[in-house]
Amino acid sequence: MKILAIDQGTTSTKAFTYDEDGAFKRIYSADVKQHFPQAGWVEHEAEELLFHIENAIKKAGKIDAIGIANQGETLLAWNSKTGEPISRAIVWQDDRSKEFCARIKAGGGEALTKAKAGLPLDPYFSASKFRWLLDNNAEARDLAEKGHLHLGTTDAFFLERLTGEFVTDVTTASRTSLLSLDTLQWDNELCALFGVPRECLPEIRATTGPFGANITASMVDQQAALFGHGCMKPGDAKITFGTGAFALALVGPQRPKQDQSGLLPTVAWKIANAPADFAVDGGVYNAASAVNWAKGLGLFKTYEEINGFEKPSAISRGLAFVPALSGLAAPHWDRNASGLWLGLSLDTTKHDMMQALLEGVALRATEVMTAIARQGGKGKSLSIDGGLSANSYFCQFLANAMDRQVSVASSADLTALGVARMAMLGAGAKSLPTLPSPTKQFLPLDPLPANLIARFGIAILRAKGWKGF
Predict the structure, then answer these.
(1) Residue 279: left if φ>0, alpha if ψ -120 to 50, beta else—which one?
(2) Which of 240, 435, 281, 463 is nearest to 360 (CA)?
(3) Pairing verdict, β 237-241 and 43-44
């Protein structure tokens, strides 16, 4: 059996082949252009994303099945008659609907979204931006009146154009704020709260479809990465350090209870007719995106420059960075928070600033994993992947901050590996190839003292606008 796995991400589209012997080979990669038409707005050209997916399929040649991982919350509107987008795709990072979310929250609407969807009111999730499209795109309103409007996350657009089926999978639907975690279907009350016509939304199917045209798996990238890490039992957890940093811990077939941790209950996957498995999710909006931002500012030229530092940790020297360049996600959920350095002085160097930046991403991830650990999600080792997992300093500091072994997964492309394995199941495989062992493991050599963790907590408060001392 030969599988094509496509990882359609925020900054690139990558494709791999995977076979029953476990051979995993990259066959295609293309950068994705992001558009920033206004402050806080982030967009993609949907046709460009589809173009890369179609190119990857052509490049693969003869295959038995296809799995596609998507960005999760990125969405668009299109004409159901022609299949043509009537808007750019609005990326998950985009915050244009934050005022709408604030109004709904002020009216008490967040109680409903948390109770049914398990999600706070935040523009990160798709529903409020669906509403923004209906409010601000005249063509969308006209098509809705005529019954020709399709609203969906990018996976639904891809699947309709590739197969003719207007469908999504349950993991992606669980990221919209419109799905009930109890029924795993679109919820009428949630649709009414956001003013999104249910008839404009795609049919919800299992993660393993079927979807048509040899596509046997479609799912959110982070859930795909969880599967790719081999997280199969309750408590297993991973963090993917990509554009953002996203931690997931598997819970099992019971919906997680809503609590005050700031973690998000979500659907991990649903395989064929088996019950869905759930997970808890905690995100950090800016990880590699913060590093790339700093590179654009000229703080470093090559990634080798920031793979090690001679000085003690920046946080121990009073220098901290909060990577809130797009606000703060879990557990704070504060879009008004802003990125900042604390402790700058005349002798601070670019190298010092980058050391603090890497530590800031690790400390934000530690905040999230601390919340997950309180729910029983702390095993002996945490599995990580993504671009930042190649940075030795970052990985060692993360192990020290969490006081926990950090294992770097065998591949930096666990999202694609996970959706490949899911597609293999969807194609009828009775078993899966053995996953390779981690490439590196980092033990906590010098656990970070509590006072330094507290120092970062003060920096977080400053990022949220706290003026006290």
Answers:
(1) beta
(2) 463
(3) unpaired
How far apart (Å, rounded) are the C-alpha atoms in residues 250 and 190? 25
CA atoms within 13 Å, Cβ hemisphere of 298? 0
* Contact indicator for 460, 366 with CB cutoff of 8 Å: no
Taking the CA atoms of 115, 119, 123 and 129 in sequence, report the sign of the dihedral they define.
negative
Q: 3-state class of 426 per DSSP?
A: helix
Residue range 2-229 in CATH 2.60.40.10: no
How many CB atoms lie under 10 A from the CB of residue 279?
A: 30
How crowded is the C-beta side of 303, counted as CA atoms within 13 Å? 12
Q: Give CA–CA dist 384/392, Å, rounded.
A: 12
Phi, psi of 42 (to 5 degrees): -135, 125
Pairing of strands 43-44, 2-8: unpaired
- Tell me the pLDDT tens digit for each residue of 404-453: 999 998 887 889 999 999 999 999 999 999 988 888 999 999 999 999 99
Q: Could you tell me the pLDDT band of residue 246, with boundaries at 50, 70 and 90?
A: confident
> Per residue in 126-140, pLDDT tens?
999 999 999 999 999
Residue owning tokens 């940093």? 245
Listing DSSP states for 19-42 in one string gives ETT--EEEEEEEE---B-SSTT--
- The terminus-to-terminus CA distance of the chain in angstroms comes to 62
CA triple 269-271-272, angle to 5 deg: 140
Alpha helices (runs of H) in 277-402, residue ranges in sequence order = 288-296, 350-374, 392-402
Q: Looking at this protein, which amino acid is placed at residue 66?
A: I
Instruction: Write down the domain spans for the chain.
Output: 2-229, 282-408+439-463
The pTM of this model reads 0.83
Average pLDDT over residues 102-125: 94
- By C-alpha distance, which of 375, 368, 378 is closest to 257? 375
Q: What's the rounded Cα separation, in Å, for the pair 315 and 358?
A: 11
Q: State the sign of the Cα–Cα–Cα–Cα dihedral 236, 225, 182, 95.
A: positive
pLDDT of residue 263: 87
Instruction: Inform me whether the pLDDT recorded for 300 exceeds 90.
Output: yes
d(CA 373, CA 208): 30
For 128, phi then psi, to 5°, come to -70, -30
> For residues 167 and 165, what is the distance between their CA atoms, to the nearest angstrom?
6
- The answer to whether 2-229 and 282-408+439-463 have equal CATH topology is yes
Residue with tokens 């999710």: 281
Phi, psi of 60, rounded to the nearest 5 degrees: -70, -25
User: Which band of pLDDT confidence, cut at 50, 70 and 90, is reported for residue 99?
Assistant: very high
282-408+439-463 classified as CATH 3.40.50.720? no
Residue with tokens 């999730």: 125
Average pLDDT, the chain: 93
